[in-house]
Design a protein that fits this description.
27 helices; Alpha-Beta Plaits; 7-stranded mixed β-sheet; elongated
Amino acid sequence: MIQGCYHCGEPIPEKCNLSIEILGESRHLCCAGCEAVATMIVENNLTNYYEYRTQPAQKSELVPQHLKTLLLYDHQDIQDDFVRENAQHHKEIVLSVDSVSCAACAWLIEKQLYKQNGVITIEVNITTQRALLVWDDSQVKLSHLLTLMHQLGYKAAPFEVDAQEQHYQKTMRHYLYKLGIAGIATMQVMMFAIALYFDVFDKHENSFRNYLRWISLFITTPVLLYSALPFYLNAWRNIKALTLGMDVPVSIALLCAYSASIFATVTDQGEVYFESISMFTFFLLLGRFLEMRARRHATAISSNLLKLIPAMATLVSGEQVAAKTLKKGDAVTILPGEYLPADGVIIQGLTTIDESMLTGESIAVKRSKNAHVFAGTLNGNGNITIKVTHNRKDAFISNIIRLQDQALYSKPKIAVMADNVARYFVGAILVIAVMTWLYWHVYLPEDALWITLAVLVATCPCALSLATPTALTCSTSSLGQLGLLVRRGHVLETLCKVNHIIIDKTGTLTEGNVQLVGTTIFGQYSTSDVLTYAAELERYANHPLTKPFLPYQAKRPLFDSVKNIVGHGLSGKINNQQWRIGKYEFVRDSQSNLAPLANVDYCDDYSIWLSCDYHIVAAFKIEDPLRQDSKQLVDSFKQQGIKVTMLTGDNSIHAQRVAKQLNIDNLHANMTPMNKLNFLKKIPATDVSLMIGDGINDAPILAGSHLSIALSSGTDIAKSSADMVLLGNNLLSIITARQLALRTRNIIRENLAWALGYNLIILPLAVAGLVTPYIAVIGMSASSIIVVSNSLRLLR
């Protein structure tokens, strides 16, 4: 007989035949609402809710409390604060993930989520304890993916700096509690152990020896059950997922030692290891604690950028509002010495802005009306009013952090190899430990257990797992301080191998501060007319060469439609006349029957030409001064034995002049985007190329080269095609970046050599019984701390 709804307990209406299989049985439900919630619970594998609940769900509260928060993340209004849509129209979010301690944790999360339909990318970084998740919202909901991570034992939530900071402080406080209990217990138990070790009791005082053992048991139990809890939880997650993590051998060692000690205490036979258990736990926790602090230091630089954005902002009306609530179009007043609360355009006032946190350049820059300014930068000595152009999640500083994180989530080959080796190494340790116990149990049974414990603890490959990610995190943070934004994970690896530099000229080696120094007329039009027509065509281009014409633009666009032929010029029609501006061959049109300009040789020094119906009407002479550090950049690369080639779309006269000033031997002028890409395809297979550019015409070669750097002053398409973006104007940062990449490679090699060398040395010693358990745990903890500390040198 059906008594009531299985979910809420209320009577089931007549003719209601709703049911669902829960815990192996068909359960009857009273309404579609209960059916929907029960189905969601079953699909998310959360049926333990029904096993352990003390009463039916209330009608007003059908959804269990622990699912409520996760379901809220599916609401669009909430997602607007932390979810963005990428170029492929998939949703993307950065998550904070608790309890990720080793490569096995990251591998487990990635493996399980990749099984879900709709998951495009899931990449976990164990150093930052964050995950980058990209998914198709039409196939799977965010709440379902977060629930799955919770089932694995890893709590995940949208990354927020303040929440992350609070969680870090809470975690460290709990670690200190556990560490304190383990430390006090170790001191107490060691006092009793000294008496037991040195046989201060004779056979007539056996009862007092047993008394000390029982006291040691009571003191050690809280250590095992509370202080060592993080190791068991991580080990249990790994075992449930049929994988092996660093804490599996540690947990086995602690539980085996405790079980053997209890048996010895109760039966008064054999040895006890209470002091080893307390000491194991204390040193393991101390190592984890110091490791967490070091990793926190490595990731704090990028996280601290968001802290520069003030919490409050002042609207022009004088009203104080939360900075995160600012919307596009809001007008905000910023006083001298205040940090900017949002990206925007100055609509009133003149000031200087300290942008060092973005560009790495300490000198403040002047900013006046119509200038773009960015959240987190520091206002200097002027009162300004800005019009907000981007919401908080789309701010420039947010994009920087997101792109840096994406680079950290991408694992180079050496990191993937180290993770795989560490995972298999744990399995090998367990096999060796079993064989060690079997051997010593036959030849020296009283020592078999502690020798096996030493093997399990001493050889735990924590250092091997940390060797690569900590170094990469530190170096990426250092690149950010240099004003170099890393967009791809392979940057540091490839930068070490570069042996051929390919550089664009205009806006890269030159300042891009193009000036019009001469205009020659070849027809009936006046100078002001040709300048206006040229400016109106250049209105539709995004290149440094357009800047000299900006002052001559008309109040309203003259041309109905303009075509931009990248690498050649622009073409537009007005009054049935075909106007062109750009290279000489383009404005003439080689397909026409018009004769070439008679005195073209005389005009070779002109870069830009203007024609009407393919008749040359004007030529413009421009100058673009070299950047101050261009010569030093080229010289430095050549001194390192790196080949330098300049590719430019400009004519050969200008290009040869710049190449001569910079002592560049390999020059290719008058290059179209396709010509540049074809050049890249023809270079020797042994060349590892680095392309540096800034324009639309550089986008194909930026995307095609082994490594590429775009200047922040360049076009959006160039920056989106590049592997790195130089946020400031200091080209010498590229040299420093290569030096840092070489240092990073050396430090990763040092870390791996130390981690592997330590394990290869300690393993035979532990198997041979030459390493006591407390020495084993000290060695393992010290090995991890050494690797992390070595990586932190990259932050200097």
